[in-house]
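Backbone-to-sequence.
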């Protein structure tokens, strides 16, 4: 049995994918915690003005689950507003970014699932 509490996890400051500012994050569950093709589950906070820089993955799906806050999400050149409660699916080989251009933190989970799109 694996149980982790993201609220008590020690957060680390990082510039994510060459974005702006420092984000606070922790890997809550690494790949070896799953018996499925999952790379990790992260807990991330984007402070006001911080961004995930535009980046591209391979053959996987990355899921962003927005718990608090709002910002703008860009995927394959299209930008939309996002807010608490939104679940964003980054498609295989898609270029995506996330910007916190609001007045408060964006709190989220990030989960990466291997796709096997064959």
């Amino acid at each position: 049995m694996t149980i982790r509490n993201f609220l008590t996890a020690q957060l680390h400051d990082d510039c994510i994918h060459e974005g702006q500012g420092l984000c606070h994050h922790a890997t809550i569950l690494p790949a070896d915690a799953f018996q499925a093709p999952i790379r990790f589950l992260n807990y991330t906070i984007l402070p006001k003005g911080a961004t995930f820089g535009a980046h591209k993955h391979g053959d996987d799906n990355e899921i962003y689950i927005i718990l608090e806050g709002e910002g703008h999400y860009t995927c394959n050149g299209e930008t939309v507003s996002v807010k608490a409660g939104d679940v964003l699916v980054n498609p295989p080989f898609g270029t995506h970014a996330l910007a916190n251009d609001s007045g408060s933190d964006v709190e989220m989970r990030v989960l990466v699932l291997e796709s096997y799109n064959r």
